[in-house]
TrEMBL record:
It catalyses: 5-amino-1-(5-phospho-D-ribosyl)imidazole-4-carboxylate + L-aspartate + ATP = (2S)-2-[5-amino-1-(5-phospho-beta-D-ribosyl)imidazole-4-carboxamido]succinate + ADP + phosphate + 2 H(+). This is Phosphoribosylaminoimidazole-succinocarboxamide synthase. Pfam families: SAICAR_synt. The gene is purC. The keyword Ligase applies. GO terms for biological process: 'de novo' IMP biosynthetic process. GO terms for molecular function: ATP binding; phosphoribosylaminoimidazolesuccinocarboxamide synthase activity. It comes from Virgibacillus halodenitrificans. The keyword Cell inner membrane does not apply. Its EC number is 6.3.2.6. Belongs to the SAICAR synthetase family. Residues 4-214 form the SAICAR synthetase/ADE2 N-terminal domain.
């Protein structure tokens, strides 16, 4: 296989069949040894984090397939910490789409003058550019169109898909008495030009709480997958 890209938490390979293989690492994003799904740097390494993230990702992508929500998932190998996916083209140099149910993380850092920690946000969807140098700046619908990154129609498709996917994850967590505060998703286009969910759905790209206490990624996987 040919290594296409080495990212913070995954390596991406091209298979002989023309698909892509994602190799999940034990690295997680954060700063100074503290996990933060919104961080732009690898903050720490946790043994088993790659497999844990893949287990949760596999569970959620399989549920998305049953609901007919378009995504890139083909299959996964938990022991090898790999997931085979269909190839997809990202928008611009990459977008991150966040659905927020509570005010925490970067939202609170930006708007703390008006928002209080844990304030209800009613599934607010926002898009940021994947740009480590500029700390992933938020961007609105008009700017995305003017810069040629998304059309108005593509923006609405992504926003609607984000709301559906986030709600599915939220409902699954509620079954375990866990509350979803926010989740970060990524989208791309498949070879036919259809917008699909890409990347992963794991504890590494969401904040989940139980009885007001934050649940680390590996603990979240243990609770959700085993129950």
């Amino acid at each position: 296989m040919k290594l296409i890209y080495s990212g913070k938490t995954k390596d991406v390979y091209q298979t002989e069949e023309g698909n892509m293989l994602l190799k999940f690492k034990d690295d997680v994003t954060g700063e100074n040894g503290v996990f933060d799904p919104g961080a732009n740097t690898v903050g720490l390494t946790m043994e088993g984090a790659g497999k844990a993230g893949l287990k949760l990702t596999t569970l959620f992508f399989q549920k998305l397939n049953k609901k007919g929500i378009p995504n890139h998932y083909i299959d996964s190998d938990i022991e090898e910490a790999t997931m085979t996916v269909i190839p997809a083209t990202q928008f611009g140099e990459g977008l991150e789409v966040i659905c927020r149910y509570k005010a925490v993380g970067s939202f609170l850092r930006r708007y703390g003058k008006y928002a209080t920690e844990g304030q209800k946000l009613d599934g607010f969807v926002e898009i940021t550019l994947k740009d480590d140098e500029r700390q992933d700046p938020p961007i609105n619908e008009d700017a995305l169109k003017m810069l040629g990154i998304l059309t108005k129609e593509e923006y609405q498709v992504i926003k609607n898909l984000t709301a559906k996917i986030a709600e599915m994850v939220k409902e699954e967590l509620i079954k375990r008495e866990i509350e979803l505060y926010d989740i970060k998703l990524e989208f791309g286009k498949d070879p036919d030009g259809n917008i699909i969910l890409i990347d992963e759905i794991s504890g590494g790209n969401m904040r989940a709480y139980k009885e007001g206490q934050y649940i680390p990624p590996m603990e979240l996987e243990r609770i959700v997958v085993s129950s």
